[in-house]
Backbone:
């Protein structure tokens, strides 16, 4: 069984499916996306992470949310066990001809996008709605007030913040109170700069969701950072990706991972990371 943890009121899996690779640039097509989500759910995954902005730059908007909706409605398993998180505040654009991610954290935009997200997901209320990324042109408080309005109006059940510092988490805590259940920040062996927020969320009782937990796939990365994980993987007879995810999950019982996948094989492997038992010595070596 896939490892379960409590994310706010949700009893869900500590390993969720990061939907982004299924619908942004270089995805492998709609049916592959449906098959990948179905494979994850069939294997016991009960959390899916998507976003308003998970579509190809210049293409149809919200295809990530629409894919999740179609996959869930054509799945024959227990839909009510699955929590779905989405995010608002980003949109896709082109900069110098390259697909990019822009932000728009104006309250009126967030309110509009939140309602569009609920519609695309086909739900009355979104399980978990994150503010995707701070907009430097908008005071953080104003963006978070809009997220609170969406929860108060019943568009979302619970809220989260993403790409947030401790100061911003505190603003969100003040405005959202117990509506705030999660912080989603980048965290992996190649990106440990958010360790302070991982520690802080544990202290204040929030879930910490690691994005790009395997170091991401869109940019070239320093592969040598993963060598110690490869060594431990060899001893356990599993993939080094399972060791990376298990190491992250061992950082605290409030930690969640949402590995991305383009195909069933990779998410099926990742879902087994909760079974890996790392020794105290291995954890000390991995840092
Ligand atoms: N909040 C934010 O601002 C933000 C930003 C970025 C991402 N995210 C979220 O985080 C999720 C994950 O991030 P990500 O997709 O960028 O990167 P990632 O999870 O670090 O890496 C995904 C890559 O790892 C590979 N992979 C996954 N599990 C594997 C396994 N067990 N064995 C071998 N390879 C494996 C996948 O391979 P295949 O391609 O071969 O399947 C994919 O190429 C996204 O899907 C999205 O939901 C959030």
Residues:
């Amino acid at each position: 069984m896939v490892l379960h943890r409590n994310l706010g009121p949700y009893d869900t899996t500590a390993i969720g499916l990061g939907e982004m690779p299924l619908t942004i640039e270089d995805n492998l097509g709609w049916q592959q996306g449906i098959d990948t989500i179905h494979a994850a759910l069939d294997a016991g995954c009960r959390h899916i992470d998507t976003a308003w902005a998970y579509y190809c730059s210049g293409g149809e908007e919200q295809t990530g949310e629409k894919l999740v909706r179609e996959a869930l409605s054509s799945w024959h398993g227990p839909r009510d066990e699955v929590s779905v998180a989405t995010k608002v505040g980003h949109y896709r654009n082109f900069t110098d001809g390259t697909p990019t991610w822009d932000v728009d954290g104006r309250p009126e935009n967030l309110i509009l996008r939140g309602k569009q997200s609920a519609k695309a997901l086909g739900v009355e209320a979104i399980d978990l709605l994150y503010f995707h990324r701070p907009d430097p042109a908008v005071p953080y408080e104003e963006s978070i007030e809009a997220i609170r309005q969406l929860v108060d109006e019943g568009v979302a059940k619970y809220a989260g913040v993403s790409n947030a510092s401790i100061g911003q988490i505190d603003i969100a805590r003040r405005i959202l109170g117990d509506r705030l259940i999660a912080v989603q920040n980048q965290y992996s062996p190649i990106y440990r700069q958010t360790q302070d927020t991982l520690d802080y969320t544990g202290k204040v009782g929030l879930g910490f969701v690691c994005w790009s937990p395997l170091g991401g796939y869109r940019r070239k990365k320093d592969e040598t950072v993963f060598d110690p994980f490869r060594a431990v993987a060899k001893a356990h007879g599993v993939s080094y990706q399972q060791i990376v995810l298990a190491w992250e999950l061992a950082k605290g019982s409030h930690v969640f991972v949402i590995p991305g996948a383009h195909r069933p094989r990779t998410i099926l492997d990742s879902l087994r990371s909760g079974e890996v038992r790392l020794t105290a010595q291995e954890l000390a070596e991995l840092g």
Remarks:
- The chain has one domain: 4-223+253-276.
- The two ends are 27 Å apart (CA to CA).
- The domain at 4-223+253-276 is CATH 3.20.20.100 (TIM Barrel).
- The pocket of NAP is lined by residues 18-21, 49, 132-133, 162-163, 184, 211-217, 239, 241, 258-263, 266, 269-270 (CB under 6 Å).
